[in-house]
Amino acid sequence: MVPLTTDQLDALTELINIGVGQAAGLLSEMIESRIQLQIPHIELLSPLALQNKLKESLGTNPLSAVKLGFHGSFVGSAQLIFPTESAATLVSVLTGETIDSPDLDDLKISTLSEVGNIVINGVMGSIGNVLNQPLDYDVPSYAEEEIEEMLPINQSDEDGTVLLVQARFTIEELLVQGDIVLFFELGSFQALLDAIEAVV
Q1: In a domain, 1, yes or no
Q2: Domain housing 118
Q3: For the CA atoms of 125, 131, 4, 155, what is the dihedral angle to 10 degrees?
């Protein structure tokens, strides 16, 4: 895998920060409270390296994830992944239910699907709009799975490229951790870099 240049990494970071800023604004309106979304780290990985890294940082317990496929000028899928505790905290804040409420699980799927849709559309939408590369999206899906099930590795996947974006949601003094994972099919990530070069 060819490493990113400093200019390419800076451009990607700027694009993602634009999208995350828009998503934070929409989420803040949802709960009528300010949400800060910070992106402290972006990293380019192979699918296998991603799986190992997430095991190290998030552990081996099942995770909550919203997945959204995208296609057009770039083809791939995006996931917003939360540790279970962070997912429950976020749902509690967004819905007003307490962490130990029996209704929380019922609300989790719809609430996190909406959050994932907002965040992923914000990120991918900003990339598509700034680069003038229109994208279409699939319907978001929600799952609670272990990392191996969530990120299955097969031979064809090893030809793809993964962009790991570590996100930190700060809501009313609460810190909620989430990772935005962008999978690009073979050739699509290079198409993204080419589009960035054309506008930078």
Answers
A1: no
A2: 6-199
A3: 60
Kindly state whether residue 183 falls inside one of the protein's structural domains: yes
Tens of pLDDT, residue by residue over 114-129, are: 888 888 888 898 889 9
Tokens of 198: 């054309």
Number of domains in the chain: 1
Q: Are the C-beta atoms of residues 78 and 124 closer than 8 Å to each other?
A: yes
pTM of the model: 0.83
**Residue located via tokens 């920060």:** 17
CATH number at residue 152: 3.40.1550.10
CA dist., res. 32 & res. 35, Å (int): 9
pLDDT tens-digit readout, 54-78: 888 777 788 889 999 999 988 988 9
Half-sphere exposure at residue 197, Cβ-oriented, CA atoms within 13 angstroms: 8
Q: Which of 133, 151, 132, 140 lies closest to 111 in space, CA to CA?
A: 140
**DSSP result, 104-142:** HHHHHHHHHHHHHHHHHHHHHHHHHHHTT--EEEPPPEE
CA–CA dist 137, 120 (Å, integer):
10
Cβ 67 vs Cβ 78: under 8 Å:
yes
Q: What are phi and psi of 67, to 5 degrees?
A: -120, 140
Q: Compute the residue count for the chain.
A: 200
